[in-house]
Amino acid sequence: MARQIYTLQEPDSTIQKLHRAGLVQVRDVLRLTPDQLAAEAHLSPSEAAGLQQRAGRRPALTQGRPRPPAGHVVTFSRRLDALLGGGLPLGRITELVAPPGGGKTQLCLQACVDAALPAELGGLSADSLLVDTEDSPVTERLHSLAAAAADHVRCAGSAAADPAACRAAADFSAESALRRVHVLRLSSAAELLLLPAVLTELLERRPLRLVCVDSVAAPWRYGEPVPRRAQELQWLAAQLRRLAARRGLAVVLTNQATTHLPAGGGAACLVPALGPGWRHCAALRLWLEPCGDIRLARLTKHPERADGTAPFQVLAVGVRDVCGDFDEPAGQSEDSEQEGEGEGPSGGDGDGPGTGQEEDGAGGAESEAKSQGEGTGHVEEEGHAVGGHVTERVSDVTATDVTPRTGDVSDCTASKRQRLI
Amino acid sequence: MHQYLKNKECPLLSEDVLAELKNNGIKTVLAFLSRDSEALIHACSLTYQEVVSVKKVLFAKYSALPCSATDLLDQPSVAPLASGCDRVDGLLGGGLPAGDLVELCGPSAVGKTQLCLAWAAAALLAGARVLVADAKCEFSVDRCRRFLRRRGRSAQECDRLLERLQYAQVFSMQELLALLEAVRSRRRLHAGLRLLVVDSLAALAAPLLASPGFIGFGLLTDVGTTLKSVAAECRLTALVTNDLVQSEPGGGERPALGLAWLHVPHHRLLLSRETSTAPGPLAQPPRAGPRRTATLAKSISAPCGTSADFLVTDAGVEEAPIAQKRSAPED
């Protein structure tokens, strides 16, 4: 069956004119010369020429390897990068799913800073866009992450052999990194549906390589009727997929976790929110689970790699590896091997302290005092633990540790205090 | 049949005759053949005999003529395409049958794209060509190359084999239709083509299906018909992946893309994955992941309801070891 004219993405009036001229199939349109088409269908010559050009388009076919292997956005945790095959992939959509306090926002913020790292030292030297739909207080956290990254780059650059790397490291600073991070605050589903247009416009002006949407679930939960929501989400996913593939963007979407109660009885389990149709939209899915003092990332979907898990922790300086060996705990009990690894502000999502409870800012007085107490009580432990495990890989951006100066630790406590207000 | 009448159809249709017919509103072959011969004499300057002979020529060219069943049986048959996992191939009677539309249906991350990769690698190894229309950017040519290497081919051979794989990224139903039209009409695209993969049709159709005016369903019907006709004409298998959705709140699951689509594919494989992530009592090969099951839900030539277990490994799709009875109940 040959392709019909109604399948062309042209305005209805043009399609009607073509039908009235007796044209039914696309190849009839292509067989006529532009002048004949203009005469038959009462179109202007330029309209007819444009119509023929668009009708004759077909997707480009490439042979063998479609394109060179795409790059990645590193996460500063070597184990997590190894799990993902190098980091968050460019050209694909990655979905981060977690219950509250899982670390989705923290990982997004770290990725935004990491995209700005110099290309000579493992980054992308590129801009990133953070789309915030949950009103998280991200600015100060971005500052501290950028400062820690700048410290690391300075150390790495001073010991690098390559002069280009040294120059790039010298040019990099916290300010230059933050200038490459763009923050967009949206609140409704309608605004989020305009995101592809915003991205197209931003791509004209800046070398954008990473887009993080935190979270894609918030504008759509409990708002609209489900079929309309499903269609809007599919449309948005299709547009983001197109942009990611054509422009080489890494798209990271965070999603909330909801409970699924099987119809025929049985145990409840955690599933990603936004319905079963949404689960097909992302190419990669990473579940983040709080696990005692650290987080566990579980890869459940990847086009090329097997499933697996990787531990990481969220410290004052950002996302980092977990030192030493790590055994995945069988149950919910805390692992005693994790003592002395260092504590961090595990209330990463900005919802509240990382105990998995949701508390809003108004009720935060008690939690604030509690985490202040935690912070002060463990300062010496953190300094000691990290000081004993300094491993600066000068040629490898994803270091397992960065020694914070004492000043930084108290800054961390101060910034934690401010974040909870 | 909707083609315009042209001089080259029949020498009796001169330019003057065509102009006269056009003035009377008869432009296409179908319009000419549907009119009565008496009416046609009044519409143009042909005689009755000439009108009858033009009609005969047009019928011979444009209408389908029945052929006998023995002629159909005598047509050379194309061997089914085996993926390498005998049990899964056995569900379909040896592999993907040529000339048919096969649908792989399943939840997210169950292995639909991996099975497509395994069949694509098998087609390349058999010396045929493969065309992939990728809507999700998850069809990894690197992984296909890894499957070929694991089958013992050298690096140069793999590169040579992969030249026969044609890959296109499609992001809308209209682009897919344009691609299928090109495949059908251009000989250099469909010569030697044994497998046409669309991964995934649900990703292409889902943004349109709830639109007003049912244009989404119209496009979907077009795509289904075009895939089947391309598969039949070019003697290839059209392999399509689809999602599972809930049929009603609290109800069971059914393939996505609407109730009308359920009738379209010739064969449908439903894929599922074992849910427990805790290591079971079976000794599975490393990096194998959970056991997956393919069930034949619809077929025009093989018995339905049969199922086969398989694993997705570095080498491709492999058979899963026979399941032993589990002593402890799963949580």
Automatic annotation (TrEMBL), chain B:
One of its GO terms (biological process) is double-strand break repair via homologous recombination. The keyword Nucleus applies. Residues 275-296 are annotated as: Disordered. GO terms for cellular component: microtubule organizing center; Rad51B-Rad51C-Rad51D-XRCC2 complex; replication fork. Keywords: Nucleus. It holds the Pfam family RAD51D_N. Signal peptide: none annotated. The keyword Magnesium does not apply. It comes from the Eukaryota. One of its GO terms (molecular function) is ATP-dependent DNA damage sensor activity. Residues 77-244 form the RecA family profile domain. InterPro entries: HRR_RAD51_Paralog, P-loop_NTPase, Rad51_C, RAD51D_N, RecA_ATP-bd. It is found in: Nucleus. This is DNA repair protein RAD51 4. It comes from Amphibalanus amphitrite (Striped barnacle). The gene is Rad51d_3.
